[in-house]
TrEMBL record:
Taxonomy, superkingdom: Bacteria
Statement: the UniProt record of this protein carries the keyword Signal: no
Record keywords: Cytoplasm, Isomerase, Rotamase
EC number assigned by the record: 5.2.1.8
Lineage: Bacteria, Pseudomonadati, Pseudomonadota, Gammaproteobacteria, Alteromonadales
Pfam families, sorted: Rotamase
PANTHER family the record matches: PEPTIDYL-PROLYL CIS-TRANS ISOMERASE (PTHR43629), PEPTIDYL-PROLYL CIS-TRANS ISOMERASE C (PTHR43629:SF3)
Single GO molecular function: isomerase activity
Protein name: Peptidyl-prolyl cis-trans isomerase C
InterPro entries: PPIase_dom_sf, PPIase_PpiC, PPIase_PpiC_CS, PpiC/parvulin_rotamase
First and last residue of the signal peptide: none
Amino acid sequence: MMAVACAHHILVKSEKLAQKLKEDIAKGADFGKVARKHSICPSGKKGGDLGEFRPGQMVKAFDNVVFKKEVLKVHGPVKTRFGYHLIKTIYRS
């Protein structure tokens, strides 16, 4: 069976901003609210929700976090050609 995952992310242009937002979330800021305010990805309007996807549908650096790292923890900043991501895997199977 092919793996599937659901992740939320925040995409910003600078690593410095991504790091600051990650610290804010660690101090208790709501991930979804931070995504709605700061993310430059269209998913930001939905609190960063990317829905379900399978390996290979996202860029490799993104997949490596979603399919290999701890679930429900904020990972990043992860650099891709789009910018810097904070990624929170909601579930995977």
